[in-house]
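Summary of Year 1 activities. Much of the first year was spent building the evaluation harness for sequence design. The harness presents a backbone, in tokenized form, and records the residue chosen at every position. We chose the following record to illustrate the format because it has been used consistently in internal testing since the harness was completed.
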């Protein structure tokens, strides 16, 4: 009988421990939420500059019969605004950066994607898929400096990102080429797609500051209250009348005489 009672007591203890572990696990879940939203551009869509690629016949050949343009404004029929960098602003607990590189490709003599995001400590990998030589050159204010030539069919160029900033990358061989890399010390960022949508997952619950940045239209900021285990929606709308950020001039281009990027900047 004593042995039976001991067995029952031991079983009850194991059950209590299991229940406690389950309770702890459940309590740990739902301490984060998700931020989703859309970015839209309202008003006449700016006309992107037409790029003249005659300086490099190999680039020019890729666009035979076409007029390539700089993808500064990628706006859908419903105002969906692509290539807008969305991120949380603030201090967060340290988490390891991804061991996978953030990839920036050179395809059809343009950088693809135009805007990407990565972590401090993560590798930026730049590839060359073009039938011509490129020169990958960063314009850094935080120590993310590099300047390297990429021959045709060369190995990818890898660079470990050192500090947070919005890094502009250009090609010295093709002055129209530009890309932007948002570098953060946390994982809470996204870039709007062609549908204007973005998602930031696993956001710590509580009041958060969300920023949306575009290379010409500048930055907007909103405060949101992220609920544990729930999805919070925050939308951003950019308009021509808003103050625009300064932009490095793009050379070797022809700008149509209709609504242009330059006219948006100077309004």
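For this record, the design step produced the sequence shown next.
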């Amino acid at each position: 009988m004593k042995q039976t009672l001991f067995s029952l007591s031991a079983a009850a203890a194991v059950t209590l421990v299991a229940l406690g572990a389950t309770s702890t696990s459940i309590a740990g879940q739902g301490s984060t939420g998700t931020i989703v939203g859309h970015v839209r551009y309202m008003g006449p869509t700016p006309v992107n500059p037409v790029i003249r690629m005659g300086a490099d016949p190999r680039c020019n050949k890729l666009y035979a019969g076409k007029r390539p343009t700089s993808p500064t404004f990628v706006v859908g029929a419903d105002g969906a605004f692509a290539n807008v960098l969305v991120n949380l602003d603030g201090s967060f607990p340290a988490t390891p950066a991804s061991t996978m590189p953030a990839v920036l490709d050179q395809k059809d003599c343009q950088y693809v994607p135009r805007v990407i995001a990565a972590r401090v400590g993560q590798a930026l990998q730049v590839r060359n898929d073009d039938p011509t030589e490129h020169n990958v050159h960063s314009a850094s204010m935080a120590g993310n400096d590099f300047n390297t030539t990429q021959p045709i069919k060369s190995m990818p160029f890898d660079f470990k990102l050192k500090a947070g900033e919005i890094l502009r990358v250009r090609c010295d061989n093709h002055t129209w080429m530009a890309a932007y890399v948002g570098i953060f010390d946390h994982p809470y960022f996204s870039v709007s797609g062609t549908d204007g949508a973005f998602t930031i997952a696993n956001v710590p619950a509580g009041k958060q500051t969300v920023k949306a940045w575009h290379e010409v239209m500048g930055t907007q900021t909103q405060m949101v209250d992220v609920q544990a285990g729930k999805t919070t929606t925050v939308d951003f709308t950019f308009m021509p009348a808003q103050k625009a950020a300064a932009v490095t001039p793009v050379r070797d281009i022809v700008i149509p005489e209709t609504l242009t990027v330059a006219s948006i900047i100077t309004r």
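The chain has two domains: 1-30, 31-266. Quantitative recovery figures across the full test set are reported in Table 2.
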